[in-house]
Amino acid sequence: MNQLEKNIVNSFNLAKRDIVANRDNIFKVSQTQNKILDILERLTKENKVLTSKLAVRKTTRKVVVKKAVAKRVKVKWVASKTGKKFHQVKCPYAQNIKPNMKVRYQSKTKALNEGYKPCTCVK
């Protein structure tokens, strides 16, 4: 066998080795792909089950949401929690009362019943 034939045989052996290695790699990739597809199928089934359970829960629970309608009450009179007199809202003394110390009234009668005396601004 001359040198040219040896080179050709060597090249074919190298090509054969590469082809066999590629075939083995493709087989491994194929096995991994099948495992991934099995996992994906299992997860899809679990997702369907969980979705159906969630749909059942949504239909069995009734959530009633009521809007709170806040009625604005006209406050005409204010007093201090620590004071003895009640005032009109626009009275300078009433405006000096801190917000957390204010007691609000809709009528003079309620303020009088609470024991407050009218300020000079009250008519």
Q: Kindly give the count of domains.
A: 2
Uncertain parts: none
Tell me the major beta sheet: 4 strands, mixed
| Integer average pLDDT | 87
What structural category characterises the helix and strand content?
A: alpha+beta
Number of strands: 4
Order of helices and strands: HEEHEHE
Radius of gyration over C-alpha positions, nearest whole angstrom: 44 Å
Distance between the termini: 132 Å
Individual helix count = 3
Main β-sheet, spatial strand arrangement? 3-1-2-4
Instruction: Bin the helical content.
Output: 55-70%
Approximate strand percentage: 5-15%
3D shape: rod-shaped
Q: Can you describe this structure?
A:
The chain has 123 residues and is an alpha+beta fold. It has helices at residues 3-60, 92-95, 108-113, and strands spanning 77-80, 85-88, 102-105, 117-118. It has a 4-stranded mixed sheet. The longest helix has 58 residues, at 3-60. It is rod-shaped and about 130 Å long.
